[in-house]
Design goal:
3-stranded mixed sheet, single chain, MgtE N-terminal fold, elongated, mainly alpha, CBS-domain, 6 strands, 3 domains
């Protein structure tokens, strides 16, 4: 059976209590695929799967692949002892993320049931700011001393392999905890056992501070092509590591949030399957009300030019065309700038150079579209109407494009998320000014 067929067969096999067939299917499935199937199971079947059909080790592995929201739902149907066991098997960064999602009273209860050492580590992680590198890191990493031999370092790694989240990269530290360099497992394996660590490792260490943003950690890992990023406190002491798999989760989450903001939706924080209708309504209604208010000004602007409309009725035919073109051009410009800022492709200081480039591009776009509608304007309304429509098209496209390009930079300048420069907002603002430009040009040329 294929992966999809295996996943789809689980609910039916559990419902029919065909335990032998179910255990056979589970034996063939990867832990990640079992985790993918769990959210679609009824609560009682989730408990049966975790507690009775999977070995404790597999149950812990499957649990680790669930999202924090899904982990919380699974915990709701388990006994306290099983909850503690599953949380205790998670890496500290994953356990901290889960506890942060739970209600405070549940977090306090579970923390009290964990071993004292785990409590201390998790409480420390939860004190770091939300979305910071400190909150994302795991304190489980392996270090070696610079005066050790390669053989001693390998023996230490073998002894501590279950402590570190990864052994592909180890860190050379001083007695005070400062990082002196890095060392890959490959370099250790290829070195002679008698070689000293300080002769094998690399002294240049790329790191991030505990309070810096997770997005900055993602940028550093991507820019320097790192597998592991050390996290330092203010004294330069290494407190943890961020691995590339953690960053993939951050990038996915941040990209999803940006898309939601650019669509004039508040950050949902849940998958679409898990989000309730009430939550989706709450996240969407605010922006829709704001956009309705903005669009009222478009209606008011049209009312100001009632005389021009009565005199040249053909102007109404071209109004949606000109306004929509401006909104579309502005949304394009905004999307390009928001994404470029998010990936670090451009910085705030680049705005003036990009402003000049966008002015050139938007003018070319406006002229092209203006020529495209010029003939239609002449055909329906005469030479003067064609000229008014063409000039308006150029001005509206340039105005909307420049606004869409500048707004993300302005938001970042004031410490706001550039993704808040949503396409619907750009379009609505472009509509208001587009109406004013269109009818002002028409009035000047035709009346």
């Amino acid at each position: 059976m294929s992966e999809t067929e295996n996943i789809e067969s689980l609910p039916q096999l559990i419902a029919t209590r065909d335990w032998d067939a179910l255990r056979g299917i589970l034996a063939q499935m990867a832990d990640q695929d079992i985790a993918r199937a769990i959210p679609d199971l009824p609560p009682q079947d989730r408990e049966r799967l975790v507690n009775h059909l999977l070995s404790p080790e597999r149950a812990s592995n499957v649990f680790s692949y669930l999202s924090t929201e899904q982990q919380s739902e699974v915990l709701d149907v388990l006994e306290d002892e099983e909850k503690v066991r599953l949380i205790g098997e998670l890496h500290y960064d994953d356990a901290a993320a889960l506890l942060d999602e739970l209600p405070d009273e549940h977090t306090e209860l579970l923390m009290e049931m964990l071993p004292a050492e785990d409590q201390q580590v998790l409480q420390t992680l939860l004190t770091y700011p939300e979305d910071s590198a400190g909150r994302l890191m795991t304190p489980e990493f392996i270090t070696v001393r610079s005066d050790w031999t390669a053989g001693q370092a390998l023996d230490h790694i073998r002894d501590q392999h279950d402590v570190g989240e990864t052994v592909n990269m180890v860190f050379v530290i001083s007695d005070q905890g400062q990082v002196l360099g890095t060392l890959s497992l490959r370099e250790l394996l290829l070195a002679r056992p008698s070689n000293k660590v300080h002769d094998i490792g690399h002294g240049d260490v790329i790191s991030i501070g505990t309070d810096e943003d997770q997005e900055e950690a993602a940028r550093i890992i991507r820019h320097y092509d790192l597998e592991v990023l050390p996290v330092m406190d203010e004294q330069g002491v290494m407190r943890g590591i961020i691995t590339v798999d953690d960053i993939l989760d951050v990038v996915e989450e941040e990209t999803t949030e940006d898309f939601q903001k650019m669509g004039s939706v508040g950050v949902v924080g849940l998958s679409m399957k898990e989000a309730s209708a009430g939550l989706l309504y709450q996240k969407r209604i605010g922006w829709l009300v704001i956009l309705v208010v903005v669009n009222i000004f478009s209606g008011a602007a049209i009312a100001m030019f009632e005389a021009a409309i009565e005199a040249v009725v053909a102007l109404v035919f071209f109004l949606p065309l000109v306004i929509a073109s401006g909104g579309n051009a502005g949304a394009q410009s905004s999307t390009l700038m928001v994404r470029a800022l998010a990936t670090g492709d451009v910085q705030a200081r680049d705005w003036l150079r990009l402003w000049g480039k966008e002015l050139l591009v938007s003018t070319a776009l406006g002229v092209t579209l203006g020529l495209a509608v010029w003939g239609a304007g002449i055909w329906l309304g005469g030479l003067d109407v064609g000229l008014a429509v063409a000039i308006s098209m150029v001005l509206v496209v340039v105005m909307a494009s420049m606004f869409g390009m500048v707004l993300p930079f302005a938001l970042e300048r004031f410490g706001l998320d550039p993704a808040s420069a949503s396409a619907p907002l750009i379009t609505s603002v472009a509509d208001v000014f587009g109406v004013l430009i269109y009818f002002s040009v028409a009035t000047a040329l035709l009346l």
